[in-house]
Structures are given as C-alpha cells and as structure tokens.
Specification:
Helices cover 72% and strands 4% of the residues. The protein is mostly helical. Helix 3 crosses helix 13.
Length: 346
C-alpha cells in the first residue's frame, strides 16, 4: 500500500488539490474553469513533453522557453507580413506555422552537436542557446508584440470541437444566441488547442514507452557505458533527442500565436523552461536519467496548472504560486532521493 501511494503521490496530490480548491474557491468546480486550466497549460504540455525525453536520457534543456518565444515571434512576423502583402489567410497562416516549426529544429541541432561532438555539458550548451534565442527574438520583434495577424488566427485559437445549447442543440460551429440566458447556457466541448496537444502527447507517450527510440533513451539515461556496449549510437540518438525537445518548443511557440493572437516577446516565456523541468520531476522522472514517462509529466503539468488556477481564484498574488510550486518540486526531489528503491523497484 505504501509503495503504491509513493509511486502515485503526484496523482493523489492533484486529486487532493482539486478537492480543496473545489471547496474553497468560488466557481472552481465548473467545466469552464477546467477548460481554462487545460488551455493555460497547453504550451507547458508541449515543452514538458519534449523535456521528458531529454531528462530521461540524462540531460537537461534550458533553452526551450526562449526557443518557444523565438518561434512565436517569427511565426507571427511571417503571418503579419504575408497578410500585409495581400496573401490569403490560409497561405499566411500555413507559411507562418511551417517556418516556425522548421526554425525550431535549428537550436536543437546546435545543442545536440555541442553536447555530442564538442562534449559541452548540456547545462552550458542549452544555457548558451537560451541567451541566443532570447536575443534573436528581441532583435526580430524590437521588444514589442507582433500584432495585425489574420483574423482566422484568433478564431482557430479560441475554437472548440463542438458546442451545445439547450436552444440549438449540438453544433460544430458557435450558435447565434441572442439572450443572456442562452449564452450562459452554452457548453463548449474540448478546445481545439487541447485536442491538438492531446494527440501529440499520445504519440510521444507511445514513442517513449513502446518504440526502440524510447528504449534507447531509457538505456542511455540509465547507464551510458552499457548503452554503448549494447551497440546504441549514443551521439546520434542524443542529437535526435535535443532536436525533438526543440521541435516541441517550436510547437508550443506556434500554438502560443493562436492562443494569444500575437507574437509575444520572450519576457513572457522566460520561466517556462523551469516550469517544464519542474513538471517532469514532479511527474516521477529522475534528473540523473533513466526514469520518467509522458503520463507522469502530464500529471505534473496538471498539478502546476491546477495550483496556479486555484490560488489565483483564491485571490493570492503570483509570488505565492511560485513559492507553492517550489515547495512541491523540492518535495518531489526529496521523495526521489529518500526512497528510490521503495518507490521504483519492479
């Protein structure tokens, strides 16, 4: 019983947090608020999923927050400029997404080459890329948000799979409602950004748990010398891991454009790399490598998102939220260090 509780402490903490905030916070227990939690966590889901592969391999990627910011700014600039040049909304948005995702591969490739070929420690290599991506984003945006995007960007970012109203029934597009009662009775079913990130998480969970790529990632993080003796091309694999992490950050950056209808400068994204690492560790991954899962990371992200939302609804200022996240992170590391054989033995 103790082993089961220890292994699932983060999930139990999440349920306990949901219960406490439901009792203490007004309107916390509602479909709309849970939808808000998921929407606010979309970018962190992307970042933490990519970071999971890095941490499981025994590394760390500190650059992903500013890579997200760089991709967000770049994608928005492409959309804005093509729209201003007379291109259609479809062409502008598609080009912005493609350019942003391709750009996101470059920081990961540089990180991977520095770590594998030049033997730069992951902390230093990715910290250097952290500064480079931040500087480039500031250079491209002049320190200002990128606005005047196609109107379809906001529509996509705020869209839901379906809508249900007592008056119109189930529809795939927002119904036209005139009265306040009808508007308040409208139920929005699964935001499109949440659907997209869910699909990505399912794919990444399968890759990490069920494929050779995932097994090699665990093997390298568990014991690199043994992985080399087993015939794994460690350098090539780590290069791919860091590219994957950077690509996930690029997905987060593109999604941020749709969520905010703006290319946001990197001050907004400056602490996301730390939150993603916190979510991975809270979800059960070991910073020494060899252990972790996408499901655990999802629980870690939800715990952070629920904590932020609940404390905000209670009226507490933001620094209390950071303190709470820090306490939970330290607790997760203490559990990992104090009872590794008990909690993680097969």
């Amino acid at each position: 019983m103790l082993v089961r509780i220890g292994r699932n402490w983060a999930l139990l903490a999440l349920f306990l947090m949901l219960l406490i905030f439901s009792l203490a916070g007004k309107d916390f227990l509602s479909l709309a608020n849970y939808s808000n939690i998921l929407l606010a966590s979309v970018t962190l889901f992307f970042l933490a999923a990519g970071e999971t592969f890095v941490v499981v391999s025994g590394g760390i990627d500190l650059s992903i927050g500013f890579v997200m910011g760089l991709v967000c700014v770049t994608s928005a600039i492409v959309m804005r400029d093509l729209t201003a040049a007379g291109a259609s909304a479809l062409a502008s948005i598609s080009a912005g997404v493609i350019v942003g995702l391709i750009l996101s591969l470059i920081p990961g490739a540089i990180n991977g080459l520095l770590i594998t070929r030049f033997r730069v420690p992951p902390f230093i290599a990715t910290l250097g890329m952290w500064g480079i991506a931040n500087g480039l984003a500031w250079l491209l945006s002049d320190g200002l948000p990128i606005a005047f995007l196609p109107s379809a960007v906001r529509k996509i970012g705020t869209a839901f799979i379906a809508y249900h109203s007592p008056k119109t029934g189930l529809t795939l597009s927002p119904p036209q409602l005139a009265t306040r009662e009808d508007i308040l009775g409208l139920a929005r079913i699964i935001p499109i950004p949440v659907l997209v990130v869910t699909i990505v998480l399912v794919v990444l969970a399968f890759v990490l748990a069920k494929t050779r790529f995932g097994r090699h990632t665990y093997a390298i993080g568990g014991k690199m010398d043994a992985a080399v003796r087993a015939g794994i091309d460690v350098n090539r694999h780590l290069l791919r891991v860091y590219i994957l992490s950077s690509f996930c950050a690029g997905c987060a950056g593109v999604m941020l454009v749709f969520l905010l209808n703006t290319g946001i400068l990197t001050q907004f994204t400056s602490n996301y790399e730390l939150l993603s690492i916190a979510a991975v560790v809270i979800g059960g991954a070991s910073l020494t490598g060899g252990r972790g899962s996408i499901l655990g990371t999802v629980i870690g992200v939800l715990l952070i998102g629920t904590l932020n939302n609940g404390l905000m609804m209670l009226g507490l200022q933001i620094f209390y939220r950071f303190i709470a996240i820090g306490i939970i992170l330290i607790g997760a590391v203490l559990i990992d260090r104090s009872f590794p054989e008990l909690l993680y033995a097969d």
